[in-house]
Amino acid sequence: MSQGQLAPQAIQALQDLTILFGAPLVSGVVAHVEGRLQGRRGPRILQPYYDLAKLFRKETVVPDGSSWVFLVAPIVAFGCYLIVPLLIPVLTTYPLPLGYMGDIIGGGFILALAGFAVAIAGAESGAPYAQLGSSRAMTFGALIEPTILFVVFAVGVITATDLPYALAAIGRSSASEIVRPAHVLAAVAFFLVVLADTGRVPVETHSGTLEFGMIDEGRVLEHSGGPLALLRWGSAMKQLILYTILIDVFVAPWGLAGDRRPISVGLAIPALLGKAIAVGCIFAIIDNSFSKLRLFKITEFLAAAFLFAVLAVLVFYLGGG
Amino acid sequence: MPHAAPSTFTGSADGIAILVLLTEFAMLRAQLLSSQVRLYAFQSLVVTVLAVVVAATRHIDELYLLAALSFVLKVVIVPRVVLRLLSHAEVDLAGSSAFGVATMIAIAIAASIFGFFSIGALHVQSTALPSTALAISVAVVLVAFVLIILRSDVVSQAIGFFSLENGVSVASLVVASGLPLIVDVAFLFDLLAAVVVFGVLMRIHHRRTKTLSTEPLDRLRG
Questions:
Q1: Are A114 and A238 within 8 A, CB to CB?
Q2: How confident is the model at residue B127 (pLDDT cuts 50, 70, 90)?
Q3: Environment class of residue A64 by beta-carbon count within 10 Å: exposed (0-12), middle (13-18) or buried (19+)?
Q4: What are phi and psi for residue A295, nearest 5 degrees?
Q5: How far from each other are the two terminal CA atoms of chain B, in whole angstroms?
Q6: With contacts defined as CB-CB under 8 Å, which chain B residues touch A142?
Q7: DSSP 8-state class, residue B149
């Protein structure tokens, strides 16, 4: 290793730390912007950090009859969200040592495992609303799955690999790759998947406690104290991970560090957070411009996402579009 | 091996064709009859833009005339006529169709996959021809058929028929852009005749059954 360069392992740790400590910031800024859009002053930008600190100080209450699963699940989910940033391009254009540990499907599996852990904790609590949330999250998760698979297929046929780094590299190679029809369709499909997976408006209202429309939020109703803090932190991290994949793999894979000098890696962190906040603001605008779909209309939304993903594969596979 | 990105002409032709196909899918979802007519107007506008793009990149001046004609006819006149008929009928919502929206879209996806693969099996690939756009136009025609078959109201069936013509226009633009102008204009006047026929049918049907749904027709016995 030459002088003045960061070790790859250090950069990899930095990727994790960026997601870990950047996620509440992104959530805070987006919540603030959202408040402004609604004519409120909005919460402080650092509010998510204060919330987490408060929750960690509070005592943990466990529902009667629930087992150790209830307490372990939030830790499992949190661990999963810490693994995924190792597999995707967060700060660098070049793959890091553990980057080949899993491909894009592997990352999807780990995210699904986290969702499964949270759902099973909700079911374990025995409370009706948490169980309702778990069951709905699993149902709609199963309906989103085909779309995710076809987005993966689209990445696969475009790059002839299944590595997120490869698609990002192709996207950076020329602007015409970003606007080619197959890529645009896959990106739109993934955008809709992110919208659904982060619990944003056409699918779910992420703020407020209206039980009838709850999907993801409903699962954590019975948790408190430290486990709840981990779950909240985890969902902020999941949001930032999905934004990162959307940005660094599909839409704007620029501003990443191309070498291992501390300055370029250091600049990649604010670049990523800035882009993530910009994406979050787009989601906030969507949140304020559309109404939530009725629960049984969500399938129409997911059918639209599936349509985009299928077209992406077809357009590329039969004609090279 | 990963393919290179398509050229500007091919890419934009494909992109516009995809937009036509997506509007066709949006028509499947539209519940308001008037929004279906507006979607048709938008789709026709997109087809007009494609004609202008082809005219500009391949230097075929006649296509500008065709684009102007199809703009006047398909974006302005036909939607106006149908909306006027609708305002007389005083029916806003399409009746319930045989399947839910998600199922209809799944069926339409299957139909368009069939269209894609049947064009792919023909091996009509050449450098000058955007074969993706050709496959998409076949998919548009098939999805229009799905719309006509699954929706049970007169307006959706008429709009499905008109948009089928849009799919054919896309195909003729990308495959045979040097087609004699008289043939293209003949297509347009075919459409005009169809509008008149469908208009008369809609009025008579509405006068007899007081609805735009085709379900009363199923009860007819010889």
A1: yes
A2: low
A3: exposed
A4: -55, -40
A5: 61
A6: none
A7: H
Residue scoring higher pLDDT (B116 or A255)? B116
Place of tokens 């929706």: B151
**Is A303 in contact with B102 (Cβ distance < 8 A)?**
yes
CB A91 within 8 A of CB A204: no
Task: Measure Cα distances from A10 to A13, A128, A190 in Å.
Answer: 5, 45, 30
Question: Cα–Cα distance between B203 and B81 in angstroms, integer?
Answer: 12
Reading the block at residue A104, the tokens are: 């894009």
Rounded Cα distance between B60 and B55, Å, is 5
Residue B19 to chain A, least CA–CA distance (Å) = 10
Question: What pLDDT was estimated at residue B107?
Answer: 92
Over residues A215-234, mean pLDDT: 87
Q: Do B2 and A302 touch (CB under 8 A)?
A: no
Q: In this structure, are residues B127 and A319 in contact, taking their beta carbons and an 8 Å threshold?
A: no
CA dihedral defined by A297, B143, B183, B134, rounded to 10 degrees? 110
CA distance B141 to B35: 20
What is the pLDDT, as a whole number, of residue B96?
Answer: 65
Asked if B71 contacts B50 with a C-beta cutoff of 8 angstroms, the reply is no
Parse chain A into domains and list their residue ranges: 8-143+210-291
Domain residue ranges of chain B, discontinuous segments joined by +? 8-218
DSSP tally for chain A: helices H, then strands E: 11, 0
Report the C-alpha gap between B171 and A159 in whole angstroms. Answer: 29
Greater confidence (A297 vs B142) lies with B142
- Arithmetic mean of pLDDT over chain B: 83
Residue (of A21, A20, A22) closest to A272 by Cα position: A22
Helix spans in A174-250 (H)? 175-178, 181-197, 225-245
| Mean pLDDT value across residues B128-137 | 77
Nearest C-alpha in A relative to B1: A160
Hey, which residues 185-224 in chain A have their CB within 8 Å of chain B? Answer: 185
Query: Does ipTM come in above 0.90?
Result: no
